[in-house]
Amino acid sequence: MFTGIVQGTGTLVSIDEKPNFRTHVVQMPANMLKDLELGASVSHNGCCLTVTGVNGNFVSFDLVKETLRLTNLGDLQPGSLINLERAARFDDEIGGHLMSGHIICTAEVSKIIASENNRQIWFRMPHEDLMKYVLHKGFIGIDGISLTVGEVTKTRFCVHLIPETLQRTTLGTKRLGDKINIEIDPQTQAIVNTVERVLASREAAMATAQAMVELHEK
């Protein structure tokens, strides 16, 4: 589990490309290396990856086909910066919200509004059906960053960024058309799905009852 509070940015230094498989070597900040061992979980732009090799501050991670398909990690090139977070510990402060590191999709940066000490970024989801999980003032994971949802339309939503977020993460460098990893708040997703199932069940029961009435009247 993660908290969505980015602990640092790392630099992708090399890629070992294989069919439907990649190994990324990332130069991690020194403050994130303490007790880092093989098998540890590290969030990369919000995607949970497993440490497969440690050589000083150069750390290796394997990416399988599904990870490359669902996230923006397959678009990275040597020199790219990555938002990083170590897995949360039981005694850690939860400054953001609990995140699993499981990316649901990528969204496209569709609009950027910059003003003094503020930035508003709009994102377009790949499918309108996913917007039912994006609620005004709800939580969402944006490239591994826990953020509060601002305005919401049928196809887009925005977040408001303070200078600290822009400085500590990669969001300050994003441009129109860039792909961003999205993690939906699992509690929101569970509630929406449950409500949909209950309503569908009620509608089915009402339809059955109406059909029985009509059959009886005949």
From TrEMBL:
UniProt KW keywords: Repeat, Riboflavin biosynthesis
The Lumazine-binding domain, residue ranges: 1-97, 98-195
Swiss-Prot/TrEMBL Lumazine-binding repeat ranges: 1-97, 98-195
Leader sequence segment: none
UniProt xrefs under InterPro entries: ATP_synth_asu-like_sf, Lumazine-bd, Lumazine-bd_dom, Riboflavin_synthase-like_b-brl
Involved pathway(s): Cofactor biosynthesis; riboflavin biosynthesis; riboflavin from 2-hydroxy-3-oxobutyl phosphate and 5-amino-6-(D-ribitylamino)uracil: step 2/2
EC class (word): transferase
Reactions catalysed according to its record: 2 6,7-dimethyl-8-(1-D-ribityl)lumazine + H(+) = 5-amino-6-(D-ribitylamino)uracil + riboflavin
One Pfam family linked to the record: Lum_binding
PROSITE patterns found in the cross-reference section: LUMAZINE_BIND
Protein's job: Catalyzes the dismutation of two molecules of 6,7-dimethyl-8-ribityllumazine, resulting in the formation of riboflavin and 5-amino-6-(D-ribitylamino)uracil.
Name of the protein this chain belongs to: Riboflavin synthase
Source species of the chain: Hafnia psychrotolerans
Lineage, broadest ranks: Bacteria, Pseudomonadati, Pseudomonadota, Gammaproteobacteria, Enterobacterales
